[in-house]
Specification:
Elements lengths: L1 H59 L1 E6 L4 E4 L1 H7 L3 H4 L10 H4 L2 H11 L4 E8 L5 E12 L5 E10 L1 H94 L4 H89 L1
Antiparallel strand pairs: 1-2, 1-5, 3-4, 4-5
Helix pairs in contact: 6-7
């Protein structure tokens, strides 16, 4: 009986031990399953996040994938829309189909792909050709693709169409260039205008000087006419006195009778000479008077002309000063537009 009881207890103990071990295994299994479920959830969330990230890129950017030899593997709808192609038109074609002939044949292009095959990341603004041959500017990155073993197997390009911005810059640059050339032409015209005005000022000043000299000459002539008039007046006075003396001599000769006859003849001739001298002096006086009046009129006219010429010189000098101010302004505009054009060019190069 004792042996049976001991054997029964041993069996119960063994059964209890197996039950405990089984429960421990079940608990461990449950823990492992829970851990796997947690890791699966994290992995699933990570995968969902990656998918969302990829979908965001797909929606917002133009994406194209290349093999290492440059052949197109795949492209998204955005890229196809920007470049105007269908996928079957570009798949299997080389990247150079999007480049100009000169670029595709250049050493720089070959080095570009050689660098990509070395795993070099490339970024920048690139001019590409769409299906119509029109230039499309892309802000793009060329990114190397590696497999799980770290081996480079392809290139993916993420791009945005920046053609409107580039065209706007080019339009601004062209407008700046036109404005710069126009301002330069304006500056040249103002310089020529300033030179012409200065020549006009010099010419008018020369005319004014000549008019002044002519006025001085006519004034001198008027003074000479005045002096001639004085001389003529003296001659007229002498003629009148001579005529008076001749008349007195004739009266005395008449009183003397036959003895004074010869003297009367001389007195008569002297009187005739005095009368002719008097007539001549009257004529000379009239001529001198007319000359004197003409000289006065000429002097007045010359003075008026000189005054107008001086006013013309003053106006021409003012016009020259205005044109000089315009020239300085044009030069300033040339400098400002030149600096603006230079900044645009530097911005485009960046």
């Amino acid at each position: 009986m004792f042996i049976r009881a001991s054997t029964h207890q041993q069996l119960l103990h063994a059964e209890h031990t197996r039950q405990a071990a089984l429960e421990a295994e079940v608990a461990a299994l449950r823990k492992t399953v829970a851990t796997l479920q947690d890791e699966h959830g994290v992995a699933q969330q990570h995968a969902q996040g990656q998918a969302s990230f990829i979908n965001a890129i797909e929606r917002s950017m133009a994406v194209i994938e290349f093999a290492l030899d440059g052949r197109v593997i795949n492209a998204n709808a955005n890229f196809l829309e920007v470049m105007g192609y269908r996928l079957d038109q570009i798949r299997g074609q080389h990247h150079q189909m999007f480049c100009s002939v000169s670029e595709a044949k250049s050493d720089a292009y070959r080095e570009f792909w050689a660098a990509l095959n070395r795993g070099t990341f490339k970024a920048g603004q690139f001019p590409r050709l769409d299906s119509r041959g029109a230039t499309v500017w892309l802000q793009a990155t060329y990114n190397p693709l590696y497999d799980e073993h770290g081996k480079l197997y392809g290139i993916v390009k993420f791009a945005s169409d920046i053609t409107p911005e580039i065209e706007q810059r080019e339009a601004e640059s062209q407008a700046a260039l036109v404005a710069f050339e126009t301002s330069q032409h304006t500056d040249e015209c103002t310089q020529q205008g300033s030179a012409v005005v200065q020549q006009t000022v010099n010419m008018v000043q020369s005319i004014a000087d000549e008019l002044t000299q002519m006025g001085q000459a006519i004034s001198a002539l008027s003074e000479q006419s005045e002096q001639i008039g004085t001389i003529v007046d003296a001659i007229r006075s002498i003629a009148e006195q001579t005529n008076l003396l001749a008349l007195n001599a004739a009266i005395e000769a008449a009183r003397a009778g036959d003895q004074g006859r010869g003297f009367a003849v001389v007195a008569d001739e002297v009187r005739n000479l005095a009368q002719r001298t008097s007539k001549a002096t009257v004529a000379i006086s009239e001529v001198v008077g007319k000359n004197r009046e003409l000289a006065r009129q000429a002097v007045a006219s010359m003075q008026a002309s000189t005054l107008k010429t001086e006013q013309g010189v003053e106006l021409a000098q003012k016009a020259g000063a205005v044109i000089e101010d315009i020239q300085h302004g044009a030069q300033r505009v040339v400098e400002v537009i030149g600096q603006f054009a230079q900044r645009l060019e530097q911005r485009q190069q960046r």
